[in-house]
Amino acid sequence: MPTTVEMYDEATKLKGAGKLDEAVVKLNEILAIEPGHVLSHSALGVILQRLGRLDEAIAHATKVCELEPNDPFSFTQLSVICQRCGKIQEAEDAMARAHMLQGGGRH
């Protein structure tokens, strides 16, 4: 059985080849084995947003923030996905959190 690293590499190749639905399947297989696999949640946020599966995309991006609550990039990615999904207030809130974590905001 391949490792989660090997599976993630395969998902990345599928994404790069434009096989987004297949990449989603592979990433979900990883999450079935390792539910807290941050890279898979992050990739799913991006891919699902591209596929128009907006609620799922936001859910995965939010999960990344839960798993990495002190990582400004996680909140930046959530902000971008929310913005692209038309959730402007949520995007602004996530960006404010990213700035706060970077030391650029006072909250």
Q: If you had to describe this structure to a student in words, what would you say it looks like?
A:
The chain is mainly alpha-helical. The chain has one domain: Tetratricopeptide repeat domain (Serine Threonine Protein Phosphatase 5, Tetratricopeptide repeat), CATH 1.25.40.10. The protein is built from six helices and no strands. It has helices at residues 4-16, 20-33, 38-50, 54-67, 72-84, 88-101. Helix 2 (20-33) runs antiparallel to helix 3, helix 3 (38-50) runs parallel beside helix 5 and helix 5 (72-84) packs antiparallel against helix 6. It is globular, with a radius of gyration of 14 Å. 30% of the residues are buried. The mean pLDDT is 95.
The count of domains is 1
Work out the helix count: 6
**How does the overall form come out from the CA principal axes?**
globular
Query: Would you list the SSEs in sequence order as H and E?
Result: HHHHHH
Structural class of the secondary structure composition? mainly alpha
Main pleated-sheet profile: none
Question: Fraction of residues in helices?
Answer: over 70%
CATH architecture label:
Alpha Horseshoe
CATH topology: Serine Threonine Protein Phosphatase 5, Tetratricopeptide repeat
Taking pLDDT < 50 over at least 5 consecutive residues as the criterion, the unreliable ranges are none
- Output mean pLDDT: 95
The CATH homology group name = Tetratricopeptide repeat domain
CATH class term:
Mainly Alpha
Cα radius of gyration in angstroms: 14 Å
Number of strands: 0
The proportion of residues in beta strands is: under 5%
Tell me the distance between the termini: 47 Å
